[in-house]
Amino acid sequence: MPTRPYLFYGLTNSICSQCLEKVEAKIIFRDEAVYLVKHCLTHGREEVLIADDIEYYKLCQDFIKPGDMPHHFNTPIERGCPYDCGLCPDHEQHSCVTLVEITDRCNLDCPICYADSGAAEVSALTDKNRNHRSLAEIEQMLDAVVANEGEPDIVQLSGGEPTIHPEFFQVLDLAKTKPIKHLMINTNGVRIATDRVFCEQLAAYQPGIEVYLQFDSFEEKALRELRGADLRQIRQRAIDNLNEFNISTTLVVTVKKGLNDCELGKIIDYALAQKCVRGVTFQPIQVAGRLEGFDPKVDRYPLTAVRRSILEQSPHFQSEDLLPVPCHPDCLAMGYALKVDGKVIPLAGLVDPSTFLKLMPNSIVYEQNDTLKKKLFDLFSTGNSPTMSAVKMEQLLCCLPLVAVPQGLTYENVFRILIVQFLDPYNFDVRSVKRSCIHMAQTNGQLIPFDTFNIFYRDGAPGAHLVAKVKAKL
Ligand code: SF4
Ligand code: SF4
Fold first, then answer.
1. CA–CA separation, 70 vs 94, rounded Å?
2. Residue 395: pLDDT above 80?
């Protein structure tokens, strides 16, 4: 009797990448990798690589913990996931990070823009006008986050390019009146590089703000392919200005397989050498918006591949450092190091390696030590303001008898690596999307997971007609 050439691990719901209709999907293990296998009645069988490290994929399940609930939900459960966003009461995680898109316009025209932003007033993709949000609309979005979260951990002003909003500093003033713990500015850095007065004004808003700076590559070819322009000088000038004013900065790298995936270690080294930089976020490309030059079958680069590349290219992080984030383990991974007196001390280096390994899930020590477990979960959680990272790390280190906690640990000593994988019509998994904790604020008070927003809910989204169709049947 023959045996199947794969292991059937589980069952979930997904969507067909062609028509976006809901389909059942098997999760299978084959040849050291994890695949979603779907069958669409119209478009047939589809197989999508979702992880290339089975052990890490299974480890993610050990990091799941009960989700935190927002103060209230915004939509009823009527049509089933993903047609009830949101957040509907069936969503399993609160908003760790909420994006407030304050403009559709941009001073770049990146070929990979998930938001289909650009310099032209009208989008060639959707024929929709590109507008700046009014202050009243922005306040509605900020209030939506505050209503759900009370004191939101992280709000990102995004777009488009938020720094070209004509009332940008009034937006910051407005946001500062809300009980937001940490405000990030999601930017391509062009204005920061070219407008020193702007930087000086921005610095006055510290502490509690952070620049989330697009920083994909040191190579002209990669920058032209991802951003449509050679931004090397712009990037360096932006970093120079951010260093001068010591404005907390996270570098954000959009990773494309075979293009800039060989630069991850170099970017980490560069980031560690910059006074202003607190960490690097790596995001493999999500199939969304205006995505040119990307073949989902060939170019798919899952979180596990990004993680492996970092481990291969950077001496600072070991496998036990880059862990699943408990809020949404299969889509977020995080690693910590300390920058102390010009030296980099990775978290694993702070404890005896054998002790640290025992802290990992499934070990007797880890499972029995609830305090340690909670502190490790707390540290590796995006559900805390980044400024709290130093405090969390100090608390964790105090639990470890072998560790002398560095004196006067502050946010400037913390260096954080985050890998963020978004779901798209190919890797979409309903089990996973229900834990999504990166959400989009809406003027109608709703908060919609970033993943479903780009597929179904953004103005002109490819699946918007399906949500309307299901709604019409009710
Ligand atoms: S993704 Fe979340 S908010 Fe949206 S329908 Fe599913 S459970 Fe509800
Ligand atoms: S990806 Fe960012 S920088 Fe590029 S066009 Fe879109 S909003 Fe602008």
1. 5
2. no
393 versus 265: the higher-pLDDT residue is 265
Q: How far apart are CA 384 and CA 63, in angstroms?
A: 17
Give the span between the Cα atoms of 116 and 118, in whole angstroms: 7
Question: Which among 257, 278, 294 is the end of a domain?
Answer: 294
Q: For 128-155, what is the mean pLDDT?
A: 94
Residue with tokens 């009645």: 41
| 116 plus 256 within the same structural domain | yes
388 DSSP assignment: G
Domain residues for the domain of 281 are 97-294
Q: Are 7 and 28 in contact (CB under 8 A)?
A: yes
Q: 111 near 118, Cβ under 8 Å?
A: no
Beta strands in 175-327 (DSSP E): 182-187, 209-214, 249-255, 277-284, 323-324
Number of domain units in the chain: 2
The number of residues in the chain equals: 474
The encoded tokens of residue 423 equal 């779901």
Which residue is associated with the tokens 């991974």? 333
CA gap 474, 469 in Å, rounded: 9
Substitution candidate for ligand 1 out of 81, 446, 447, 455 with most atoms within 8 A of CB: 81
Separation of alpha carbons 65 and 380, rounded Å: 12
Residue having the nearest C-alpha atom to atom 4 of ligand 2: 110
Burial readout 331-344 (b: 16 or more C-beta within 10 A, e: otherwise): bbbbbbbbbeeeeb
- Both 375 and 231 in one domain: the answer is no
Percentage with pLDDT > 90 across the chain: 65
Protein residues whose CB sits closer than 6 Å to any atom of ligand 1: 81-82, 84-88, 90-91, 433-434, 449, 452
Average pLDDT over residues 136-154: 95
What is the band of 361 on the pLDDT scale with cuts at 50, 70, 90? very low
3-state SS assignment for residue 414: strand
Examine residue 13 and state whether it is found in any structural domain, yes or no.
Answer: no
Q: Is the peptide bond before 207 cis (omega within 30 degrees of 0)?
A: yes
The predicted structure's pLDDT at residue 261: 96
Which pLDDT band, with edges at 50, 70 and 90, does 270 fall under?
very high
Which ligand sits nearest to residue 120's alpha carbon?
2
Whether 118 lines ligand 2, by a CB cut-off of 6 Å, is yes
d(CA 194, CA 140): 31
Same-domain check for residues 159 and 271: yes
Highest-confidence range of 110-124, 299-313, 391-405, by mean pLDDT? 299-313
CA-nearest residue for atom 7, ligand 1, is 91
